[in-house]
Specification:
6-stranded mixed β-sheet; Shikimate dehydrogenase (NADP(+)); NAD(P)-bd_dom_sf; amino-acid biosynthesis; EC 1.1.1.25
Length: 292
C-alpha cells in the first residue's frame, strides 16, 4: 500500500476521457476517495474527443490502465472499440465506465442508476410519475432505460432532429417493445416542436434536461424558452452540475419548482465505477462532506 497521495512504481492508473473536461469533479472525487481508503491508484482527466478516441483507447489498453470513465462526446462512439459490453450498456447503447479485466476492456453504464439514486436521495419518488426527458445521448439514454425499470409510468423523449434522433426512436422502441417486464409508455418527439414540448411539460411530474445545454460553452442557453412553461409542482432536474445552477434550474427556482442538478448523478455513478475498479465502496459521505 502506498503512502497517502504518493505515486510509486505500483500505482495503477484510472482516468476520464471527455471534452470539455476542465470543469469535471471526477478527479477530485476519486482521488479523495482513494487517499481516504489508502488505495494505490491515481485518477487523471484526459481531454479527448471523438477524433482521438480510438488512439487513446489503444494507448489505455497498452498501458494496462485499470479502468476509465467516458463522458461527452464519447459515450456512444467508444462502443466498437471495446471487447465486451455489460447487458445494461448493450441495452442502452452507451458506455460511461470501462473496466480492464486482464486485458479485456469491458464497457458498463452507471449514469442511469446514478441519476435515479440521486432522485431517491433527494426524496423524489418516481413510481407512477410522468417524465419529460430532453435528449437522447449516452446519459439521457441511460436515464430513459433506468427510469422505465424503476417505475416511471410515462416518458416523453424530446430530441433535436439531428444524429441522435434515431437513438431517441430506438429508446422508445426498447421501452415499449423489448422491456416486457416494465409498465411504462414511451413516446418520441422533435425538440423543435415547441407546442408538443409545452403540452408535455404541462402534464409532467418531472422535467429532465439530459443534454449538455447549460454547460460551458452553452452556459447561457436553455431548451425552455421562458418560465411560463413551468409550474411550482413540477420537479426540474439537470444532468449538468457545472454550473451548479443552469439557466433552466434558475428559471425553475424562480417559479418555485423543486430542482436538482447533476451532482447527485455524478456522485452515485462515480461510486459504482469506483467499486468496479477497486473492489471497495466509495466513502460517499466523506466525499459529500469534502466537496458539496
Amino acid at each position: 500500500m502506498a503512502d497517502q497521495g504518493r505515486i510509486d512504481g505500483r500505482t495503477k492508473l484510472l482516468g476520464l476521457l471527455a471534452t470539455p473536461i476542465g470543469h469535471s469533479l471526477s478527479p477530485a472525487m476519486h482521488n479523495m476517495s482513494l487517499r481516504k481508503l489508502g488505495l494505490n491508484y491515481a485518477y487523471m482527466a484526459f481531454e479527448v474527443g471523438n477524433q482521438q478516441l480510438a488512439d487513446v483507447v489503444t494507448g489505455m489498453r497498452a498501458l494496462e490502465v485499470r479502468g476509465f470513465n467516458v463522458s461527452m462526446p464519447n459515450k456512444t462512439k467508444i462502443l466498437p472499440l471495446l471487447d465486451e459490453l455489460s447487458p445494461a450498456a448493450q441495452f442502452a447503447g452507451a458506455v460511461n465506465t470501462v473496466v480492464n479485466e486482464n486485458g479485456k476492456l469491458v464497457g458498463h453504464i452507471t449514469d442511469g442508476t446514478g441519476y435515479m439514486r440521486g432522485l431517491k436521495e433527494a426524496g423524489i419518488d418516481v413510481v407512477g410519475k410522468k417524465m419529460v426527458l430532453m435528449g437522447a445521448g449516452g446519459a439521457a439514454t441511460a436515464i430513459a432505460i433506468q427510469a422505465a425499470l424503476d417505475g416511471v409510468a410515462e416518458i416523453a423523449i424530446f430530441n433535436r432532429d439531428d444524429e441522435f434522433y434515431a437513438r431517441a426512436e430506438k429508446n422508445v422502441q426498447i421501452i415499449n417493445e423489448e422491456m416486457k417486464d416494465v409498465n411504462c409508455k414511451a413516446t418520441v418527439h422533435r425538440l423543435e416542436d415547441e407546442e408538443a414540448l409545452k403540452a408535455a411539460i404541462a402534464e409532467a411530474d418531472i422535467l429532465t434536461n439530459g443534454t449538455g445545454v447549460g454547460m460551458k460553452p452553452l452556459q447561457d442557453e436553455c431548451l425552455i424558452p421562458d418560465a411560463s412553461w413551468l409550474r411550482p409542482e413540477l420537479i426540474v432536474t439537470d444532468v449538468v452540475y457545472i454550473p451548479r445552477k443552469t439557466k433552466l434550474l434558475e428559471m425553475a427556482e424562480g417559479v418555485g419548482c423543486k430542482t436538482l442538478n447533476g451532482l447527485g448523478m455524478m456522485l452515485w455513478q462515480g461510486a459504482r465505477a469506483f467499486e468496479m475498479w477497486t473492489g471497495e465502496e466509495m466513502p460517499v459521505e466523506y466525499v459529500k462532506e469534502q466537496m458539496f
